[in-house]
Write a structure and sequence with these properties.
heterotrimer; A mainly alpha; B mainly alpha; C alpha/beta; A: mainly alpha; MetI-like fold; 13 helices; disordered C terminus; C: D-Maltodextrin-Binding Protein, domain 2; D-Maltodextrin-Binding Protein, domain 2; 4-stranded mixed sheet; 3-stranded antiparallel sheet; 18 helices; 14 strands
Chain lengths: 281, 297, 454
């Protein structure tokens, strides 16, 4: 094989290698694009042809949604809940993940067992008992009602991902820090925490979208309309026999945009940090 | 190497671990215990609790729809595990290669489907598989395979396979992001040494990447099994349980029994069954996949 | 020190105690629902105070959101009547929780299960069945007149007492047909027998469109659009009554029922091949585009077709409504249902002022206002009203004609438990898709039926 032939083959290989992710990425973007241009149609136009591009740039649906539905309030409720839950989940996920990975202590198996059991429970099974419990305690219908249950639902996944990441960090790091006289807490937060940033970002993204779209607990525990989250608000567009899809999609799009924007912005930031972290490690 | 030099005192450990455990216990374990208790009763509301002992469980074992739903769940787990994690692993390796441009664009965009709600995903893919106007039908007809076009979501023998496809598509991004972040912990110098020895991309993936992220992969498998046992919204959005019960899964069946028929005792018994089956599958998968001691359980 | 396992067991036992305490406390709880708040002035002696002079807050959960009210007439009119009540009695404050239709009932089933219903209880059959035996709803027999309503208040009655009034009245088996296409096929009016329809199928096959488009993704359509009328025709209304009274004389395994199933399946050539997974809203859109000969569905379709005028002008005049054909040519039954209603929480008995306000509300909602507003836009209400029909489309006038000139019957498992109804729907779906035979289908339903025998 001549040098020229080898170059062509490697260029062709590189081309195919690049095409595969592009094909998949395009299928990932198309739904978002379709969602957007469907919001520019009326219900009759949408039902007439689901795929066709809209004939005009018609913002009626947006006007309608903003006038009828207090989307701002719902986005605020959802954002506030999500941020608080995220902080709780990341902090306790990190701490629990670290301990469960690094040390063997007496209650480790019990703790692990309880956290794992979350994976075996379908949410619907817990709805009635949770409502009875919360009603007994008096925790229903407050702005903070859903924060603790949802955080607990997200905790196990975070714990497992963090602990499997921590197990790949060599113990020499902590030992060196201990020799240098660093206290345990100081080591944990100043040395270990920066190293696990990649997995914290990953679990943060996962938990963020789970919280943003969370539905079951919000449905059960919140009845005052001013406490609603976005996922509840979206159901308001569903009639018994007819759904006005374009209007519902408008509300969906409005609620997706801040989340996706945040995600895209943060993503770029963190990838830079991740690459730096890997080299250091 | 158990009690390490840097392990903190019991008090410090308790301070870190106990608060979250107590809250978790109150929020999730207590309702779970309540649900298990309910499974021994027959009731529609708590004013009218009738103790029936194991009767709900006897009904469960005799209920043929439970076994159909379980079978569908198993099918989902196997197909989606291969699809989601398999494809995610391949894509992660491709995106990590030096030959790729726009890797961060791909990585960001591929997570988009995970952020979509099940209703939207179900709707989109119902459109793709639509008998009259769907993209798949259109392509098949224009290629001349008119007879191959069938109402896939309406036929008992094809519905489960076609329900898997949206699930795989949506969650590839989920596993991709996890695998990619685990791959950042692998030292780049190992790859460089392998390349000097002449290793191609494929060999690097199989012999370097795969073993080093085995921990993460087993977490992915565990999450995949759990998520595919819990599948609910997608089935409802696409087929509502399919022709009869052909695409019914355990979560859908439990919901219908609990909420559409107000048979909450039986619904709780089904949830207990769900618990047992899922934990058994995950335990089995860990036994099959683990070969090292000292791994996270 | 205590071993971990023992500790776990101790904790679990503590929780069981907690559970027992919670349940018994909730049982004892009287009017202390977490949703209600009353601003009363002074004493609580019953009857002496005039409720119109006190500030009263009533809680309600329903599906009539402002977002949906724009396009769905039943929601628009419900809100209109509700707001008229609130205007007439400014001392009443209504705390409304409004959500999507299925979400509302999901919430209500959880509330019913925990005995925490709101003051005004939005009912459907499932919620009603769950609470009717346990004195969770107020007996309103003395405050409403059975004869005033189309369904004689049978839907939400139990043991002779009335617990709820209907807020919707829907008829389910109208044939919406494209009169232009059927005229081309040689029929000035829609055929009266299924044999004629099957003959006309040739014409539609040649055109490449389904003769009757059918959408059974939500499996109740097979029951409401076709099967109810078939069962009434072949098994007879007496058989249906006997079946519902569970007196043992009628069973699903009877020959007439199996025959009804077989006859139902003979209609399969009329339908689109993807009928099992097709969505009703899509089917209506196809009809509105002229891509189907006919569609059998409920009274809400008329509104959808009229909304398609903007993209297909003239369609709402081409679509007409006829009664369902029968196999023997005799008159069919028209299927109706009261899908939703409202009742009152039994806990209101503890608070006389609130109770009177709530009763006034139910009487207001149970007047002919709602039905009149609905009739003005060509839709049905639970009370029979006479209204000027001149502004209505011919299609809507047809609907009134069909409904008023035929026997209105509830669906054929109306008094049976929801599990039997669900069994009918899913077994029909399996049967129509060819997975099981008619005998197996009947046997499956019979099993669910017998599980309900007391």
């Amino acid at each position: 094989m001549t040098k020229m032939e080898r170059k062509i083959i490697s260029k062709a290989g590189s081309f195919f290698l690049n095409i595969i992710p592009f094909i998949f990425s395009i299928t990932c973007i198309i739904p978002v694009v379709w969602l957007f241009y469907s919001t520019l149609k009326t219900s009759a136009q949408f039902e007439s042809s689901i795929i066709a591009l809209p004939t005009s740039f018609n913002l009626e649906n947006y006007k309608y949604v903003f006038k009828t539905t207090p989307m701002g309030l719902y986005i605020w409720n959802t954002s506030r809940n999500t941020v608080i839950i995220l902080l709780l989940v990341l902090f306790f996920g990190f701490v629990n993940g670290y301990f469960l990975s690094r040390f063997r202590f007496r209650f480790r198996t019990v703790l692990l067992g309880f956290y794992v059991s979350n994976l075996f429970i379908p949410v619907h099974a817990l709805l009635v008992p949770t409502y009875i419990l919360f009603s007994f305690i008096g925790l229903t219908n407050r702005w903070y009602s859903t924060i603790l249950p949802v955080a607990c639902m997200e905790l196990p996944v975070t714990i497992f991902l963090i602990s499997s990441y921590v197990s790949s960090i060599p113990k020499e790091l902590e030992e060196a820090a201990a020799i240098d006289g660093s206290s345990f807490s100081r080591t944990l937060f100043t040395i270990i925490l920066p190293i696990v940033t990649p997995v914290l970002v990953t679990t943060g993204i996962i938990a963020f979208f789970h919280c943003w779209n969370e539905f079951s607990y919000s449905l059960i525990l919140l009845s005052k309309e001013k406490l609603y989250t976005i996922s509840l608000a979206l159901t308001r567009f569903k009639g018994e026999n007819r759904i006005d899809y374009p209007k519902m999609m408008t509300a969906m799009f409005i609620s997706m945009v801040p989340a996706l924007l945040l995600y895209v912005l943060f993503s770029k930031q963190i990838i830079k940090g991740m690459v730096a972290g890997a080299i250091k490690g | 190497m158990l009690n390490n030099r840097f392990q903190p005192s019991k008090l410090v450990m308790a301070a870190y671990l106990v608060p979250s455990f107590l809250v978790y216990f109150a929020m999730l374990i207590v309702p779970l215990i309540m649900a298990i208790t309910f499974s021994f009763f027959k009731f529609s509301n708590i004013n009218n609790l009738t103790f029936v002992g194991l009767e709900n469980y006897k009904t469960l074992f005799a209920d043929k729809y439970v076994w159909i739903s379980l079978k569908n769940n198993f099918f989902l787990i196997v197909v989606c595990m291969i699809g989601q994690i398999g494809i995610a692993f391949i894509l992660a390796n491709i995106l990590n290669s030096r030959l790729i441009r726009f890797a961060s664009f791909h990585r960001t965009v591929m997570y988009f489907p995970v952020t979509l709600s099940a209703v939207v995903v179900g709707y989109i893919w119902s459109m793709v598989f639509d008998y009259n106007y769907g993209i798949l039908a259109y392509v098949l007809r224009s290629l001349g395979y008119k007879e191959a076009v069938k109402p896939w979501l309406g036929q008992a023998d094809t519905v489960m396979l076609f329900v898997c496809i949206p699930l795989i598509w949506q969650y590839i991004g989920f596993h991709l992001v996890i695998i990619l972040s685990a791959m950042t912990s692998i030292d780049k110098s190992i790859y460089e040494m392998a390349e000097i020895d002449g290793a191609t991309g494929f060999r690097k993936a199989v012999f370097i990447t795969f073993p080093m992220i085995k921990n993460t992969l087993s977490v992915c498998i565990m999450l995949c099994i759990s998520a595919n046992m819990k599948v609910f919204d997608h089935i409802i959005a696409m087929t509502n349980g399919g022709p009869g019960f052909s695409s019914s899964v355990l979560a859908v069946y439990t919901y219908k029994k609990s909420f559409s028929e107000m048979n909450l005792g039986y619904g709780s018994a089904l949830s207990v069954g769900f618990f047992v089956v899922t934990s058994a599958i995950i335990a089995l998968s860990r036994i099959l996949l683990s070969n090292k001691k000292g791994e996270i359980t | 020190m205590i071993k971990p396992r023992k500790m776990t067991v101790l904790v679990i036992m503590l929780c069981l105690l907690l559970v027992a305490a919670a349940c018994s406390t909730s049982k004892k709880t009287g009017s202390q629902g977490s949703n209600s708040s009353v601003q009363e002035t002074g004493e609580t002696t019953s009857g002496t105070k005039d409720w119109t002079k006190e500030n009263v807050t009533l809680t309600v959960i329903h599906e009539h959101t402002a977002e949906v009210a724009q396009t769905v007439a039943s929601s628009r009119m419900y809100l209109r009547v509700q707001n008229e009540f609130l205007d007439a009695y400014p001392n009443v404050n209504m705390e409304v929780t409004a959500l999507g239709s299925s979400e509302v009932f999901e919430r209500l089933t959880v509330l019913a299960a925990s005995n925490e219903l709101p003051d005004i209880v939005y009912l459907n059959k499932v919620v009603f069945d769950a609470v009717k035996k346990d004195n969770m709803l107020l007996d309103i027999s003395d405050y409403v007149d059975r004869n005033f309503f189309r369904d004689n208040l049978n839907t939400f009655s139990y043991n002779g007492s009335v617990y709820g009034i209907p807020t919707k009245y829907t008829t389910y088996n109208y044939v919406y047909y494209n009169s232009k296409l059927w005229k081309e096929a040689g029929y000035e009016e829609f055929p009266k027998t299924w044999d004629e329809v099957l003959e006309a199928n040739e014409f539609f096959k040649n055109k490449g469109i389904p003769c009757i488009i059918f959408a059974n993704k939500l499996p109740f359509f097979s029951m409401t659009s076709y099967f109810n009328a078939i069962v009434h025709e072949i098994c007879g209304s007496d058989w249906v009554d006997s079946l519902n009274s569970m007196d043992g004389n009628a069973n699903f395994t009877d020959a007439c029922f199996v025959e009804a199933l077989e006859k139902f399946k003979t209609l399969r050539p009329l339908w689109n091949p993807d009928f099992i997974s097709a969505d009703d809203q899509w089917a209506v859109a196809e009809l509105a585009k002229g891509n189907a000969g006919a569609h059998i569905s409920g009274s809400w379709v008329a509104g959808s077709i009229i909304s398609h005028e903007s993209v297909n002008p003239g369609i709402s005049d081409i679509i007409r409504v006829a009664k369902v054909p029968t196999f023997s040519g005799k008159e069919p039954t028209v299927d109706y249902a009261v899908p939703q209603g409202i009742g009152l929480n039994a806990k209101l008995a503890n608070d006389e002022i609130k109770k009177q306000a709530a009763i006034a509300f139910i009487q207001w909602m149970g007047s002919d206002r709602y039905s009149k507003y609905m009739a003005e836009v060509g839709e049905m209400g639970p009370v029979e009203v006479k209204v000027d029909q001149s502004g209505l489309k011919q299609m809507q006038k047809d609907m009134f004609e069909v409904m008023n000139s035929h026997k209105n019957v509830p669906h054929f498992v109306y008094r049976l438990h929801a599990s039997v109804e669900n069994s009918v729907q899913s077994s029909l779906s399996s049967f129509l898709s060819g997975t099981i035979s008619a005998e197996e289908c009947a046997a499956d339903i019979q099993r669910a039926y017998e599980a309900q025998k007391p």
